[in-house]
Amino acid sequence: MALQDRSDRIDHVGPDLVWRQVAEDVESDISSGALAPGAKLATELEMAGQYGVSRVTVRRAVKDLAERGLLVVVHGRGTFVTR
How large a percentage of the chain has pLDDT more than 90? Predict the structure, then answer.
């Protein structure tokens, strides 16, 4: 499955933290309904390629969204939008 390139959505030189930009973009997809409840996100590695960032950056963004109750991470199964 080819993922849409979203690297142009990330400002690597500006003052905003890169992980926060990724989190905001995913949150926007959740809010708009582009990512429906129960939808499975791409893997960390796939998202890193999609956004042009490191896997650690994606992991931090996912952690933030999970802490805020927007995502749930199920070990061995993936990351899902909460219902």
Answer: 94
Angstrom distance (rounded) from CA 21 to CA 6: 11
Mean pLDDT to the nearest integer, 52-76: 97
Contacts of 83 (CB under 8 A, 6+ apart): 37, 38
Please give, one letter per residue, the 3-state secondary structure of the chain: CCCCCCHHHCCCCCCCCHHHHHHHHHHHHHHHCCCCCCCECCCHHHHHHHHCCCHHHHHHHHHHHHHCCCEEEECCCEEEECC
Beta bridge partners of 81: 71
* Domains of the chain, start order: 15-81 (1.10.10.10)
